[in-house]
Amino acid sequence: MKEFVTVDGKELRLGYTTGSCAAAASKAAATMILTGRRLEGIKLLTPKGIELELNVEDTTIEYDDSTGEPVLVRCAIRKDSGDDPDVTNGALVYSEVTLTDLKGEVDIDGGYGVGRVTKPGLDQPVGNAAINSVPRKMITENLQEVARELSFSGGFKVVISIPLGVELARKTFNPRLGIEGGISVIGTTGIVEPMSERALIDTIKVELTQKKELGYEYVLLTPGNYGSDFIRDGIGIDPEMAVQTSNFIGDSIDMCVQLGFKGALLIGHIGKLVKIAGNMLNTHSKYGDCRMEILGSAAAVYGVKPETARYILGCAACDEAVRVMREEGIDEAALQLVSDRIERNLDNRAFKACAIGQSFEVGAIMFSKEYGKLGETAKAQELLEKIVG
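Now predict its structure.
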């Protein structure tokens, strides 16, 4: 692709999704099976309105021995993620097409390397191939268009496969989400936009939806792997119970409220959670860094000397600030003050997300790798008990 988008002042090239690859390969295979002519390229109009011109690779055509007519066509489109760091970049997405007598129908399934859904709450029901609804619609509409143009009155059987899918799935969220045996065929616009925050938020929503479908009324949240490790080693519960929010704390609270959860407990490293005390509900560094200002002011409230507060302001890591507080004997009080601020800002975010008459409980536990648990909000233990059962 030659289209670009500007992200943080940089010009980054767009790519196209596995869904677009599957639809384009299916369109090419359907055209070849109906015409008997090999194609080197195919055009595809994406839901975003961008038309792709894609190379068709590794074509196989099988013929009927008696009539000489094509009975099966298999071909591939190579995934191009543009400048987005996508693990599927360069993978071949195959479509195998055969004809059926079912007028206008397009039967779509997944083959090798396409995952299968094993848990509820995803785009597809349990048992289906993990080919999402938009790619299924793209495949169906493009094949029906081919049938109209070539005056074909029957239907199509389509099997999508991705030879590298089993290996690639280990690098994705799929095993965690309950998609086994390969990767998903996804994409809502057909286009990959580099560094898309929306894609990360959509992934979080999928996990939250899954928890809700499984009957959870309260949910455990953590920003990342540090939190997962502490949940396992510091609290002694399965980290798979938690949904990883990355930096999107506020968005995750909003989604929890919208999905109808009764409450959420956030467990996170001080380096992330202290920012919430400063009302930063997206903790990415590009939005700011108030960590030492908050820790320094909390220490000052409890009487440290100006030079000590100044030293904390100059610390590079939160653990160093905590060490100083401990030496001064004020760590418990100062970090509880920080926890109280975290509680206030989480409560405020949840309140704004709630509809009239709706309530939502939220709490947090803050820790560090060096010092373990550092503080918690008033409802933290109660929420943990509700989550663990």
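Residues 199-388 form a domain with the Beta-carbonic Anhydrase; Chain A fold (CATH 3.40.1050).
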